[in-house]
Amino acid sequence: MKILSGKELAKIETEKLKKELEDMQLVRKPILSIVQVGDNPASNKYIAAKLRKCEEVGIEGRLHKFKETISQNGLLKKLDIINEESDGIIIQLPLPDHIPTQVILDAVPFEKDVDGLTSRNEFKLYNDSDQKYFVPATARAVLEIMDHYNVNYKENVKVCVVGRSHVVGKPLAHIIKKQGADVATFNERTGVKGVESGDVVIVAIGVANHIKAENIKEGAVVIDVGTNLDGNLSKELYGDVDFESVKEKASAITPVPGGVGPMTVVCLLKNLVDAIK
């Protein structure tokens, strides 16, 4: 069984990204603005990782943090100001219930939508536009991991995607299907019966240890996108896949932590560099 280490790949891609930025000889560092509303502990952790990676590669990361009580209009006005000083903008999710998420996402200019979550970006992605669009960072991370480790997800292969989020499952299913694979999608409503037919299984459903050995066929490649805290003081991370049981049947698997997560941050910054080209 082979471990598909996103952590190791992220080191390689980080160095490439640093070199690319140096070669561009920009007059100033690119600016990535992160907009956060409230003080979600998980969000704080993800943001810290993004800011560290920005500093490492030579990007100026700026955190704009607002109280949870800010109004929709108040946040939109702040975004207008942030837009003037930014090359890329990400809205850290989730937002409070009183703020409609898509309205705020769509307030990010398309050309600065490095998370790939605006309606305009999604339209281009799902309508196979020849024009530039951004692949959401987590979906891009999964694709780059599979490419690096020579995982066949394109021809004469069945790919099962568990989860249909706009960030991971839905764009991945669309992109992989375009490559010629036989793609089947699953979610909490459909259940996971049939996942065991997949040569490649990508799991992003947000439920710890949801996929067991019985759901995986012998020799399958398993990509675990999940990051779930155990809720105890140890704060240990668990994937959506029961790693200990599945590793006995899979031919290759991404670990959690150290799998898709590290590459997601790198791919976000790759999207930023693409935005300024």
TrEMBL record:
Keywords from UniProt, A to Z, are: Amino-acid biosynthesis, Histidine biosynthesis, Hydrolase, Methionine biosynthesis, Multifunctional enzyme, NADP, One-carbon metabolism, Oxidoreductase, Purine biosynthesis
Annotated residues for binding of NADP(+): 163-165, 227
Q: Where is the Tetrahydrofolate dehydrogenase/cyclohydrolase NAD(P)-binding domain?
A: 136-276
Tell me yes or no: is Oxidoreductase among this UniProt entry's keywords: yes
Q: Which GO terms describe its molecular function?
A: methenyltetrahydrofolate cyclohydrolase activity; methylenetetrahydrofolate dehydrogenase (NADP+) activity
Quick one: which pathway? One-carbon metabolism; tetrahydrofolate interconversion
**Cross-referenced Pfam families:** THF_DHG_CYH, THF_DHG_CYH_C
By its UniProt entry, which SUPFAM superfamilies does this protein fall under? Aminoacid dehydrogenase-like, N-terminal domain (SSF53223), NAD(P)-binding Rossmann-fold domains (SSF51735)
- Give the EC number(s) under which this enzyme is classified: 1.5.1.5, 3.5.4.9
What are the Tetrahydrofolate dehydrogenase/cyclohydrolase catalytic domain coordinates in residue numbering? 4-115
InterPro entries (UniProt xref): Aminoacid_DH-like_N_sf, NAD(P)-bd_dom_sf, THF_DH/CycHdrlase, THF_DH/CycHdrlase_cat_dom, THF_DH/CycHdrlase_CS, THF_DH/CycHdrlase_NAD-bd_dom
Q: Which GO terms describe its cellular component?
A: cytosol
Q: Give the reactions, separated by semicolons, that this protein catalyses.
A: (6R)-5,10-methenyltetrahydrofolate + H2O = (6R)-10-formyltetrahydrofolate + H(+); (6R)-5,10-methylene-5,6,7,8-tetrahydrofolate + NADP(+) = (6R)-5,10-methenyltetrahydrofolate + NADPH
Tell me the GO BP annotations in alphabetical order. L-histidine biosynthetic process; methionine biosynthetic process; purine nucleotide biosynthetic process; tetrahydrofolate interconversion
Subunit info here reads: Homodimer.
Family label: Belongs to the tetrahydrofolate dehydrogenase/cyclohydrolase family.
Q: What does this protein do?
A: Catalyzes the oxidation of 5,10-methylenetetrahydrofolate to 5,10-methenyltetrahydrofolate and then the hydrolysis of 5,10-methenyltetrahydrofolate to 10-formyltetrahydrofolate.
Q: What is this protein called?
A: Bifunctional protein FolD
What organism is this sequence from?
Answer: Mycoplasmopsis canis UFG4
The primary gene name is folD
